[in-house]
Design brief:
The protein has helices spanning 3-30, 67-79, 190-202, 275-278, 313-319, 343-350, 361-373, 424-429, 452-472, 493-496, 498-512, 522-528, 539-553; strands spanning 35-36, 104-107, 116-117, 121-127, 142-149, 154-157, 159-162, 167-173, 178-188, 207-215, 218-225, 235-237, 248-250, 262-268, 289-293, 298-302, 322-325, 328-331, 354-359, 378-379, 391-395, 400-406, 415-417, 437-442, 477-481, 518-520. By secondary structure, it is α+β, with helices and mostly antiparallel strands.
């Protein structure tokens, strides 16, 4: 063959390979495998083969899980698998990490013309860049998205999808007419998430606990936790005999284990990350910073087309639990939501009912809210700290009882008397239950420093107790509050990051799926709302949460409809 023909033949072959490569990429692009950052969704772990292999933190403690529970745990850990930076980016310089100020998002035009209608889906494409302005080539960044309208006090959380190549999509159901503005926030870079993952798996002791032991005039304080190294001294074993939940303290030198007086947060370990890693957690630089639009960030939504039949319920049920309109939460699917405005409506619903609230301070807010809006409720002085409880209030005229009790360790409240440390599962087993019993549960924030397996084990015990309660006392109303995002100033991210909370939120949803309980979606309620994120959401959001619980308690067919 002549040299010219050889060259010509080679070019033809290269062109064919190029065409095949292009077609392959187009096909793959049309069938992108998204990693969803929404807790409702899941992705298999096959792409992240080490994501559920953590057995570093005393996995031998507690009651052994059954084969079914082991499978459930694996499935839950699979569902919250998170993309990791490639090995070459294991310890990048700050300039190589995600920079929200140099990143941007673009509103994708609708397929049929440049108009949006109620019932359509809005899509936004987010492009992540590093501090040098270069496009990122891998995923794993943690983003939040919201579509909102200040004029209508409306808002809905977006579903974020990670394309794992530096591109992200945010999708929103269009649920109201008029102007709506897109807001995208980078909570953490993918490099920061890698640091948080390591801390969660390797340093669950970064919040430590203590107990005071006292006998007569002699007292000692020792360190406590769910698991302690046994080579640093003998241990006192306070494992719960019923649920098997483990808890240990180092034994005092001169006192017995029976001399334990209280439980308290000891403090936060510092200097857990390098100076280089600390640059990944700078407020107003790369922690919870907005990403700006490349052009417009605002659209106008027209009334629904007649042929569409209104909002696409298959879409909204998939990713969205509800939205705000006129500052009122409107759930999509499930029980109808009602507004309980004022003491009369709430009192009518709760007449002859006992409301038991168990968990952390975010459900204690419900107790405080009900106490503030019901003037005839009288709080009993139980000589217990306001932050810790137990708390109790009664309306003797309407026969309403409100009670709050914090969950068992780990609990980061200042000081809890040892005798008041109760596990939720045991408390539920002590309830008679029935149509006049309401149970509200919230347990998440104090588990943010532990591996997810520890949290799943606790939830499993609670789920069993809820199932037993519903079986022996049908009609008992149970509400489970999910996690919520919060302010992440200073070094809060290392202990209470929204990334930790999102993963716990997803685990909780999975564990309670299928039970006859109402899930109060605190996560989307806070993401969709106009007010800033806070560990303890403002009263306007707490009211929506309590209204959601009351709508479950006083739904049609339960007697007190209100």
């Amino acid at each position: 063959m002549k040299p010219g023909n050889v060259l010509k033949h080679g070019l033809i072959v290269l062109s064919l390979f190029g065409l095949l490569f292009l077609l392959h990429n187009i096909t793959n692009k049309e069938n992108w495998k998204y990693k969803l950052q929404d807790p409702v969704q899941s992705v298999t772990c096959t792409r992240f083969p080490t994501c559920h292999r953590n057995r570093t933190f005393c996995s031998h403690l507690g009651q052994p899980a059954s084969p079914e529970e082991e499978l459930e745990e694996r499935d839950i850990l699979d569902s919250i698998a998170w993309p990791q930076p490639p090995p070459r980016a294991a310890s990048p310089a700050l300039c190589q990490t995600s920079d929200p100020a140099r990143s941007l998002f673009t509103v994708v035009s609708p397929i049929k013309g440049r108009r949006w209608y109620v019932g359509d889906q809005l899509e936004v494409l987010v492009h992540l860049h590093d501090f040098d302005g270069r496009p990122k080539r891998y995923g794993g960044d943690f983003l939040l998205a919201r579509l909102h309208s200040p004029e209508y006090q409306a808002g809905v959380a977006g579903q974020v999808l990670d394309h794992e190549n530096g591109l992200y999509s945010a999708r929103f159901p269009l649920l109201w007419e008029g102007s709506a503005r897109v807001e995208v926030t980078m909570v953490h870079s993918s490099e920061a998430v890698a640091v948080l993952r390591r801390l969660r798996e390797k340093r669950p002791d970064r919040v430590y606990f203590v107990s005071l032991f006292r006998l007569g005039l002699r007292s000692e304080t020792t360190v406590c936790n769910m698991c302690l190294p046994q080579d640093q001294g003998p241990l006192c074993n306070y494992t719960d005999p019923y649920s098997g939940e483990p808890w240990y303290c180092y034994k005092p030198k001169a006192l017995s284990c029976d001399a334990r007086i209280n439980h308290a947060k000891g403090g936060y370990l510092k200097n857990l990350i390098t100076n280089k890693e600390a640059l990944l957690f700078q407020s107003d630089v790369n922690v919870k910073v907005p990403i700006h639009a490349s052009a417009t960030d605002t659209i106008n939504v027209l009334p629904s087309r007649k042929e569409s039949g209104g909002p696409k319920t298959d879409l909204v049920k998939m990713a969205t639990s509800g939205y705000y309109y006129r500052d009122s939460w409107r759930p999509l699917g499930g029980i109808p939501m009602r507004r309980f405005d004022g003491a009369a409506a709430i009192s009518k619903c709760l007449t002859n009912k006992a409301v038991y609230m168990y968990g952390d301070s975010t459900v204690r807010q419900w107790f405080e809210y009900l106490l503030s809006v019901l003037p005839d409720m009288k709080e009993f002085d139980l000589r217990s700290p306001k932050m810790v409880g137990p708390l109790m209030a009664v309306d003797s005229t309407r026969n309403i009882l409100l009670k709050y009790r914090c969950h068992g360790p780990p609990i980061r409240f200042s000081t809890v008397t040892a005798s008041e440390l109760r596990y939720i599962a045991n408390e539920l087993d002590s309830l008679t239950g029935g149509p006049n019993t309401v149970v509200a549960l919230s347990i998440w924030s104090h588990f943010s420093t532990f591996p997810v397996e520890v949290y799943v084990r606790r939830l499993r015990h609670i789920r069993r107790a809820v199932a037993r309660l519903l079986e022996r006392a049908p009609g008992t109303a149970v509400a489970v509050r999910t996690a919520n995002p919060q302010d992440l100033k200073g070094d809060v991210s290392l202990y209470n990051s929204d990334w930790f909370s999102l993963q716990l939120d997803a685990a909780l949803r999975a564990v309670f799926k299928g039970l006859d309980v109402v899930l109060v979606d605190a996560w989307q309620m806070c993401v969709a709302h106009r007010l800033p994120h806070h560990l303890h959401p403002p009263t306007a959001i707490v009211k929506s949460m309590v209204d959601m619980m009351l709508s479950h308690v006083c739904r049609e067919g339960t007697g007190n409809i209100g």
